[in-house]
Amino acid sequence: MAVCIAVIAKENYPLYIRSIPAENKLKFHYMVHTSLDVVEEKISTVGKALVDQRELYLGLLYPTEDYKVYGYVTNSKVKFVIVVDSSNTALRDNEIRSMFRKLHNSYTDVMCNPFYNPGDTIQSKSFDTMVSGMMLQAC
Amino acid sequence: MDPGLGTTSGGLYLSLSENEQRRYTDLLHTLCQPDSSGKVPVSKVGELFRASQLPAETLHQITELCGAKRLGYFGTRQFFFALKLIAAAQSGLPVRIESIKSELPLPQFMGLKNDSSELRISSHSKSAEISGPQSGMLAVKIPRPTLIKNTKHSEGMTEKQEPWSPPLSPIGSPPHSPGYQSSPLCSFGKQRSSTDHIEVSSETKHSSLTATLKEGVSSSNYGISTSHSHSTALKLQSMDRSTEEISSVYPDDLWRINEEQCEYYTVQFKTLQSDLSSHISGSVAKKFFTKSKLSIPELSHIWELSDVDCDGALTWHEFCAAFHLIVARKNGYPLPETLPPTLQPSMLQMDGASQEPKHNNAFFSASFELPPLSHIQKENSEEINAMESSHMPSADADVSSHERQSDSCKSAVSLTMIPEVKGTPTENLPFLGALAKRGNLKHTDRTQEMDPHHKSWTRPRSYSSTSIDDAMKKSEEPPTPPPRPQKTHSRASSLDLNKLFQQNNQGGKSAWLPPPPALPPRPLPSQVTMYNSGSDGASLQKAGHQSNFADFSKYIEESETSQTQPPIKPIRRKHRPESQNLESLETAASLPSSTSVSGSKPHLPVQKQSSKVKKATQTAIRKNKETNAVLARLNSELQQQLKEVHQERIALESQLEQLRPFSFL
After folding, report:
1. Contact: A125, B337; criterion CB under 8 Å
2. How far apart are CA B379 and CA B44, in angstroms?
3. Between the N and C ends of chain A, which has fewer C-beta atoms within 10 Å?
4. Residue numbers of the domain that contains A9
């Protein structure tokens, strides 16, 4: 269902970014990059004292003509961005939330690996498998 | 093959070029040191043959061709013949006498050992291994019969004899050629001897792997003095051993951990974490596995595969699986995408039944020796002895280790052979006993630990726990409903009264009163009749109220038949329609007199039963009182409702009047 999935580190560089179809990679990269601003905006509105109350799921960041971009941020300021096709109207908010939850879980699994240094690009095969599964559901 | 071959080989003039001559002689002298009889030790020949990387079938043929099989030994001539045939085979020519008539390129051997060791022979014999599936191993069977003679561990070996088994295809192909395997071992031995002559195979495919291994070996050289490196060295050694084991195993069994491997892994686990049931933390494991010199991505992948519960720590089974994967990877096997089922902790738990965590340290050293002595082949037990002696915490153990080594050689062949090996010297008994224990004991204590890993373990994600307890409590409610009020107090009291009338008419007084004893009915009818007569008389007195009298009479009858005392009667009558209140009072007033009159008459005959009658009357009175109370309540409620309805009606009428002028208009 998702056309592009990206994991962005706290310092706003990508840890993992993958998109299908492969030829529009640059476009998706750019889209994810621009969405970072929106994410920052959303997480900055909540005050410092309310960090605990801030919800992880940010919802629709912005819609474009062809795509919709959803965001999710963890407590360690690692961002997940999912780009879905606008024509996929059947996609409900709950489904997006579940996708983010799965992403988050897989990300924590990757972090548990002592051979993974935080800040490295994610090269875990299980993570790849999970992402592929999410991306190919509708396709 | 040909019976005449023996003579053929003997009579055939083996033309060897100068190169070949030189090479063969070199080989003969450097590698194989023929004893005084001019025979080349079969073991060495076997090694060499294996190093040639030819399929065992070919080697078999070569042996037969060159006449050694027939003769039972390898003479110089036979040796040269064999070498030539090997060259031919490696060149792709069929193994025939004819093929060696021409000059051929020199045969290639990989990783020839320079060490001479009888014990390597013993390792060969052991190669015949234990674990059945590994029978396919590369082990050259040629040396077997002669090995028995040579080895000092004949006892155990005789049982181990296996017939010349057909070779397996993997022999020719795999990256783990025996020579490759043996080279690090050689190097190990050479570390001790401080000389290092490893002939790396010319085949490039294996060269890289050997190189990496050599690197590891050389790196371990530096660390050899420190205990730190011991684990590395052991690791490499184990890897080599298990390498050999793995190489010889069918691909299906590649992912199956043997007992020896398991023991070794357990030992390593213990060095990292003494408690077998707890975890190795991620950082500790990382340090340990990094020593294996695998690349970080690969290690990361291995970790991913083996840490099934994704908790950043390794349990014993996970550790074994990871170790096994590393060993496999070191030997060139590609890592699987998913964890093979045989390596999963749930599976390992069953396999690990032979492991008993409750080892004594004494047994540790013994088990320590086991993995080195794994079923596999080219183990140089001297090397191992030397290796492990350096690792022994106490110097005393060296001697004992050597002894144990030799004995364990017999026993190590297979743990299943334990019962047969019981005849060994007494000093081995405790060791063997431990082996037996390990072999027989089940992993009950592991089950509990592994239970969480059995299930598809997902980290507990946050979710609201269903309040099952609450639901259970709710089901216990509602408690039993309060007991229903007596029928007499129900709303349809009038119906009951009707019933009473009917009962009275029937005269079945006793039925109406639940408690009353059976006796009273007798006098009652008589009294009833008396009272009736009395009441009739009273009713007759008031001719003006006949209409009411009919009711009253009934009531009176009822009241009298119910044996209520006179004072109760008026109360009952108050429930009558209001219009009849006065009359009821009047009748009540009259009644007592009548009843007293009537009562006096039959007084004498009734006296005997009066006490019983009184009791019955009292209960009846009580009942009636209750009924009266209920009826009074009912009446008041109805009155209230009536008032409310009246008020509503008034309100509505007033509204209507208000609206009327409008409607008129």
Report:
1. yes
2. 14
3. C
4. 2-137
**Closest approach of B6 to chain A, Cα-based (Å):** 60
Closest residue of chain B to A127, computed from CA coordinates: B304
- In DSSP terms, B268 is beta-bridged to none
Average pLDDT (B181-200) is 40
Measure Cα distances from A60 to A13, A70, B631 in Å. 21, 4, 71
Interface of A with B in 77-106 (CB under 8 A): 101, 105
Q: According to the 3-state scheme, what is the secondary structure of B587-613?
A: HHHHHHHHHHHHHHCCHHHHHHHHHHH
Q: Note the pLDDT of residue B663.
A: 66
Say whether residue A112 is in contact with chain B using an 8 A CB cutoff: yes
* Cβ–Cβ < 8 Å for A6, A30: no
CB A98 within 8 A of CB A130: no
Q: What CATH number is attached to the domain comprising A76?
A: 3.30.450.70
Is pLDDT larger for residue B429 or for residue B335?
B335
Q: How many domains does chain A have?
A: 1
Residue among B568, B566, B550, B544 nearest B501 (CA): B550
The candidate with the shortest Cα–Cα distance to B345, out of B404, B277, B254, B294, is B277
Beta bridge partners of A8: A14, A79
Summarised one tens digit per residue, pLDDT across range A39-84 is: 888 888 765 555 555 678 888 888 888 888 999 988 888 999 998 8
Which residue among A105, A108, A124 places its CB closest to the CB of B300? A124
Which chain A residue is nearest to residue B296, measuring alpha carbons?
A115
Which phi and psi angles does B153 have, rounded to 5°?
-110, 55
Q: Which residue of B has its CA nearest to A109?
A: B310
Each residue of B596-615: pLDDT tens digit? 555 455 555 667 778 899 99
Contact B301 A105 (CB under 8 A): no
Directed axis angle between helix B444-454 and helix B316-330, to 10°?
80
Task: Give every CB contact of residue B86 below 8 A, 6+ residues apart in sequence.
Answer: B49, B52, B54, B59, B62, B107
- Alpha-carbon distance A122 to A78, whole Å? 13
Contact of B375 with B127, CB cutoff 8 Å? yes
Q: Do B304 and A123 touch (CB under 8 A)?
A: no
Alpha-carbon distance of B142 to B476, in angstroms, equals 80
Look at residues B303, B297, B301 and name the one whose alpha carbon lies nearest to residue B284: B303
pLDDT digits (tens, 9 = 90+) for B374-416: 444 444 444 444 444 444 444 444 444 444 444 444 444 444 4
Task: Give the ipTM of the model, two decimals please.
Answer: 0.84
